[in-house]
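Hey, I'm writing a tutorial for new members on how sequence and structure tokens pair up, and I'd like a real worked example in the thread rather than a made-up one. If someone can provide the structure for the chain below, I'll link this post from the tutorial.
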Amino acid sequence: MKIFVGQKPDPQHMQALVRCKLGENGALLDLFRKKLEETKNSLVVADDLVKLHRLQGRAEVLTDFLEAVEKSQEIFDRVR
């Protein structure tokens, strides 16, 4: 969550993440989940160290986003 939330969460950003969680952007979340799964599958067969590191970074960002969406309501309620 450190990428999208940080130490001082912006209320507007948190509200946008809450809207994602509430289903207004369900297709976007599905896309992110699909891309995370594809990235994990690519990690299993990666044979180049540079590609492996890039895939790890991509997986971290996608996971961080999905986690931020999941916890957004709780964080939004705190920063409001």
